[in-house]
UniProtKB/TrEMBL annotation:
Residues 1-141 form the Reverse transcriptase domain. This is Reverse transcriptase domain-containing protein. Pfam families: RVT_1. The lineage of its organism: Eukaryota, Viridiplantae, Streptophyta, Embryophyta, Tracheophyta. It comes from Arabidopsis thaliana (Mouse-ear cress).
Amino acid sequence: MLKMERCKISQYVHLHIKACLRQGDCISPYLFILVMEVLSRMLDSGLLEGKFSAHPLCITPRLTHLAFADDLLVFSDGSQHSLLGISGILQTFHSFSGLDMNPSKSELFFGGYGDSEAAVIADLIGIRIGVFPSRYLGLPLNPTKLSLATLQPFIQKITKQLNSWTTKFLSYAGKIRLIVSVVYGKVNFWSQVFVLPKGFYKKIDNLCSAFLWKNTTSSARGARVAWKDICKTKEEGGLGIRSLEEFATVFRLKQVWHLFTRRGSLWVMWLDHNIFGRRNYWLMDSTPRLSWNIRKMLEVKSVFQRLIKCQMRDVGPKRASDQ
């Protein structure tokens, strides 16, 4: 909303402009980013000034928080001193920005603390203790491998969407297009972030097959063509649909590619220091102490090696000053 007041003094016109932004205004996101940048710098400064201590795995590279829009993750060693320091920074930020933390939507996650000790600290801060899996940006956060039970809400969501299409008179081509564009699009979005169990992919394939042949989601029994044959290339008699498991392999290969090409990425820097260290990716063995995602990245070594191509060319003689 823009309000302008006009008053005439002598031969000059003075405009006193008072402006405020409504929700949904096109400039609102930019203003919000500028304000959140202040909070980001306050958290970084708070760590350097000793107001709170860093998480043991977030010292190098220095990582105090992750922020996306109004969703904020803050990392610390979990001590009472650190949580009080972070709370003080948030209160200072609230005093001049008007943006405040919502305690009812905030959670604390502890690692290496006993239940009683964590409960005392949580009561002191006034924030409840969170339980994994927790949701962040629409995706579940879990320190362990995602199980089929954890993915059940996602399966139910896809089932509900397929059921909503069964009431429409769709051709086989229309159903295939919906499956590839909508269902596969959602599943592949998750596959880019997580290593999903094979049972999950099998369940989604069964739902898609039942929807295609039987116009239902209950069972694909009696389907004219098996789903694995539909996912073959057109030269092999299929419809050229990539299977979900093949997509998952591609996404793991993409992560390995980023590991070698995106040296300035925060994710790559964190992996270099905390996971790989001085060890070489090609010589590193998969061990149970590594996360499920890292182990899957190591398992695609043989596939990645077959795809690597090196081109050597003569660049001509070099001068000493060029080296």
